[in-house]
Write a structure and sequence with these properties.
The structure is a homotetramer. In chain A, 38% of the residues lie in helices and 16% in strands. The first copy, chain A, has helices at 4-9, 16-19, 45-48, 57-68, 81-95, 111-126, 143-146, 152-155, 181-190, 218-230, 301-314, 319-344, 365-377, 402-420, and strands at residues 23-28, 31-34, 39-42, 79-80, 103-105, 131-134, 166-169, 201-204, 207-208, 214-215, 234-238, 262-265, 278-281, 350-354, 357-361, 380-381, 383-385, 391-394. Chains A, B, C, D: InterPro entries: Aminotrans_3 (IPR005814), Aminotrans_3_PPA_site (IPR049704), Dat (IPR004637), Ectoine_EctB (IPR012773), PyrdxlP-dep_Trfase (IPR015424), PyrdxlP-dep_Trfase_major (IPR015421), PyrdxlP-dep_Trfase_small (IPR015422).
Chain lengths: 421, 421, 421, 421
């Protein structure tokens, strides 16, 4: 494989190519192929961007159909037929059946852009600067979003500029068994000298992806919504990684029966890995004035097209949800088994997750790395997350076949055994 | 045209659909078509994103070829054949012939992301927080980039959070005839109590696009580079709008014979309107540690593919440059004529620009709006820029045919006359 | 009493004159006299500024002696005999006997100035921007200090400018019985994505004055020191209110046997109510360059003079400490009795404090106000603290006579009964 | 002289004791005496804090009278007879005769505290965060004030924390002869993308003290006031150094016939070098809520007492103004002569100032230091200011006798000659 120019020209900031130092060429559903023809099962799936698999045939066909004629590709924030079609799909397939009433902003095609727009909207709507976020939360790295992202790696690489306007509170479970971390939040809200500026909004991932597959309890989420309502604080669900079916529902917050005031989506939203994001907001929160937030690529018609196809292909009924849930249980059981095996090897390991967003916490990044490196040698692309990279995580395509899923899990189990025995 | 769902569901933040309230469907080179079959000449071209026209055949063919097989579409920051191919094209076609030695960062596919990465890199490299930017500069709206963007519309929509780390100085010409605004910069640098924190970098557009087609003089740019070198300050050329041939050279700073330390590109970089951006940096500035800046869509293989095709199609020799320059002169002459006509009507109008980045300053946003509204009625999509929208600007595809160019200019001239007589 | 001009000319920001709407004229030790000759016992003592009482005779004599000749009064940061004399007293009477080795900065005469200097020194010494502070902490209201002050009243009056560089953590006891709040701090320090930027320093009051007479446990303080040492974080003891003997030791942190890296003193430091403050720092932390922090009144010779007199009068042996401790127990017992009485009236009341820094938490600001208003009518000046003003606090002069102390306590007890029966 | 303990214990931050390495003991009017009995003429006068001289007899007598009985010394923000008396003097002697209607805030006794309060008040009153300040402005070093202070020495000593909420614009004359720097300000205000956030207020010294005795033209000040009025921006006159008669009027802005919305005073306000400051505000701007800004030493009764005495002693008629003006001309003439002499020695020197706030710009800090060091050897305490310390400045007591003034000027002239020949 020819990698010289890649090593020479690409900035040292590159990261995944260090874990997987091959040149990938082909990809289909849950399979990746490198330049030398070697195949890998893909349990990373674009870090949750490829919920419908690589080169999903139906979604790709919609793209090819669109490209077959000279349909507009780049449309700034013009009205285009592609955008209209996407909005129709969103309304009919997603919002109406769930009884949700949201307006939509296309803030630029990346997750961090959606978060920047969402928190700014919350601030403008409430006239307050503070945004509460949680330990191990990840919401992007542009300076506005970074104020809500806990990871020191990014926070220490701002050239010394402190972030402004974010307050971290402990996520569900952070203070240990038996402590409801929302007690602390609620106490601070009521405390006139606790140091917490009354926030405009709270931004939360119902399952923290980068943070280590940390799963917020459903009661905790309900209470969080209630606290927000009681204190006139906006609840922002960052569903960039956990949304689009990853947890077994289209929106990850559906499990808890809550209705966020603002929702961010990206990653799998386009269905094919195309850059695309949206901010959903309760209509009365749409305090934007024309043009107050912009960006060149907020009308990428190819993504509208594939996103609409994805919604219509997978979300017209609950079959896909059930399939994800079923596969999630398969992964959960196997992860529990692997965790048990690791515990027998003296490693404090445990399984956690929701739907097909699952991880095995093996207690240290070193151990996790050993496992994932070995897995890669054995033909499985799988990554870690968590503050120390201590969680081996499965974000396989939701469309993965049972055979590939089993094969991937087999590789992982074998690799864990090989790596640590 | 069915626009109800667009009006109902899209946030009030939408803007271009207010100026051009039609639903666009087809687009080819410099022609846009709306749903009712009406055609428009496109002098906006995705705000400079479609330098090679809508649905450019060669570039699109590269996309279709890539899509014809199951090549990887979304690759995080994996090594992919598509990325490698792009780097090869960039090196061979662009950098080597110009004697430039840059490393490349793919920071996420939008311009604002590139700017966030660029200024953060400068801060990390120099250990200083300040970034000097110029009046009427536009560098994006995420909070980091916004510190360098002058537009009040965005700056006042942050929910009260002040931006941090940017200092505005007067752009070339801002202090009137005869005053070299860099005198002020240089004086401040040497003044221990002038209030200017020694900057890590200076970010500059050689021609300000959103700011009103303000053209920095070549001597001014040379002096700016010299000042930066003398004071160990990094020169960041934001070539997001002015780059990719818009001014008649691939990089807009080539006219001045300067070599920025850091360059940002986006908009037309992908060649087809696909979200894509890059940061170029002198190799010794690549102080990033692995993973210190990230983003999901920094390995969008379709954009690598079309970007490589664009470079190979248009930049192997200087024919395209000459063509852009020639067309630029056509526009310049006609704009001067229109400006002259406006002056006869008592409007203080003047032409300015470089290459095919040109504008007529008509002195007020109201007058400019009258002209562009009339132009739209007459079949021309054209927008304004400048602090008050007082500059009617031409950002037509560089690939526009002479006939379309003339037709567009005719419409504009007629519309200006009609609107103001 | 003539108060018209006061009401007309003084800004609405005035506060104590609303609780005590009389014009005070004379004051001696623990007695205040108003213009109409009415006497009050003073349990407020300048919010802890008059530990040695009003017009303390020995200290005042030193002032008069100094003023008797044309000794320099205002000396910028000149070397003066008065400053030298103070440093000698500080070293001989305070530092040496306690085995402390500190250098001294006179940063301007107010507490907030001392805090601004202290946290800036910590940041400069460690090259990090973050300062950890605690819920209900009060460290001043200038913008740098305000980042570490929890009170919303001040934080919301910055015209929307968020403070930068402070992170609030729960003070001892804040998470309820059985929870050691330092577990949370230590977890965050070790958590690479917990959102806590590694701090340069931690600023703490061992007993929070304005925050509600919240007493940090001695083991908690020891553990805090240990955590700081383990993580190379500077421990800053803000002893502005709790220092100068208030808790029964000269430095309030002596009880815990810890040695902060940086100490701030003000309030009672001058001994007579003259504006005066200092920052003590371990010698190796003195990274200031000449003149990097300044202020006009950092060489107020009258305060040097009275401060030296205070040290020599009260701190040559441990007699004064013992007296304070004894009186503290008197107050504690009576406060417990009053709290018991209140509980019988159905009010959830409790006593807390250390030395002569004591309070009765009566659960609500309304109840506390009723008591203190009645007390004022009955001849006692006493204030509340805590986030809701729910703590009736005693900060009487340490030099109060037993008779006056008993009389003040009698009035308080009577007033509480009268107010709430 | 015994200086060991001073050198050992005082922080490296100390500065004046490096220029004047003696221990001062006595001081009377414009004379300082060191421990060895050496006398110095004082042209520094506490950096403008001792306008009425050291140990001014009348003012000091008021202090002694107050201290003769047990009058309250420290009164938090209680109503005291001393405060009332000061307000009466301020109203009768200063405000009424000048037709000024201001309310008064006592924000803590230092200048930086007054500035913090003033800019916060402006922000709260206008609901905007930005404060415009000028090149070479000095307004204090606490973090809020520092945002408006240009000096890099302080700005670079914040441990990397950038200041927030200040925008620097060129002071009068900064852009050279013939350029009115307010053209730039006015252009920026009208420019929607110039990068200047509409400010809540503009803070200005009519004569910049620390910045180098830079004198704002009276027309420039009038235009500045007009611009502020036209744009609903508050004009804040920082009269901490230039006020209290220094320029020949009580308020330095009287020369220009303007009426600032907010005024800050400190330094010479107490008349005797006691820490004291005030914020004056137009009554309708008094948007403070009770207690929104505080500080322990905002009711220092000794300073009220001496300040009232100073007003009544010197400002009942215009005799003192005339005397200051006369002496100012004496200094001006001699400074012009010295500057002429320096020019003959090849040094580009010039005189400037207003009233008794005067300097000789000698072009470099090295030259200025040579002169002031020699002057000190010859018995004159005189300091430099300006960004490089290039301005030898005279801030002698306004009460200096003609003989002492002449003697000081003689020493300076001789020293300049000696130092540079």
């Amino acid at each position: 494989m020819q990698t010289q120019i890649l090593e020479r020209m690409e900035s040292e900031v590159r990261t995944y190519s260090r874990s997987f130092p091959v040149v990938f060429t082909r990809a289909q559903n849950a399979r990746l192929t490198d330049e030398e023809g070697r195949e890998y099962i893909d349990f990373l799936a674009g870090a949750g961007t490829l919920n419908y698999g690589h080169n999903n045939p139906q979604i790709k066909q919609a793209l090819l159909d669109y490209l077959a004629e000279d349909n507009i590709i780049h449309g700034l924030d013009f009205w285009t037929a592609a955008k209209r079609d996407y909005l129709e799909a969103l309304e009919e397939v997603v919002l109406k059946p769930r009884g949700l009433d949201y307006k939509v902003q296309f803030p630029g095609p990346t997750g961090t852009n959606a978060v920047e727009a969402a928190i700014r909207l919350a601030r403008n709507a409430k006239g307050r600067h503070n945004i509460v976020t949680f330990t191990n939360g990840f919401h992007g790295v542009t300076m506005g979003a970074l104020a809500t992202t806990g990871n020191r790696k990014f926070r220490e690489a701002t050239g010394g500029v402190p972030t402004v306007g974010g307050s971290f509170l402990p996520f569900d479970g952070y203070l240990g068994e038996g402590a409801d971390t929302l007690d602390y939040f609620e106490k601070l809200l009521g405390d006139k000298s606790g140091g917490l500026d009354i926030p405009a909004g709270v931004i939360v991932e119902t399952v923290q992806g980068e943070g280590g597959i940390n799963v917020a309890g459903l009661e905790w989420l309900k209470r969080l919504e209630r606290i927000c309502r009681d204190h006139d604080i906006l609840l922002i669900a960052d569903d960039i990684q956990a949304g689009c079916g990853r947890t077994g529902k289209f929106f990850s917050f559906e499990h808890a029966g809550i209705t966020p005031d603002i929702v961010t989506n990206s990653k799998s939203l386009s269905g094919l890995g195309l850059p695309f994001s949206q901010v959903l907001m309760r209509p009365e929160l749409d305090v934007w004035k024309p043009g107050q937030y912009n960006g060149t690529f907020r009308g990428f018609a190819l993504a509208f097209t594939t996103a609409a196809a994805a919604l219509r292909t997978y979300w017209q009924d609950d079959a896909f949800e059930q399939e994800v849930t079923r596969k999630g249980e398969v992964v959960a059981k196997r992860f529990q088994k692997i965790a048990g095996m690791l515990r027998e090897l003296g490693i404090e390991a445990s399984e956690r997750g929701r739907g097909l967003m699952r991880g095995i916490d093996v207690g240290s990044g070193d151990i996790a790395d050993k496992i994932t490196h070995r897995a890669f040698e054995n033909g499985l692309v799988i990554e870690t997350s968590g503050q120390d990279g201590e969680v081996v995580k499965c974000l396989c395509p939701l469309t993965i076949t049972d055979e590939e899923l089993e094969r991937g899990l087999d590789i992982l189990e074998t690799s864990a055994r090989e790596a640590l025995s």
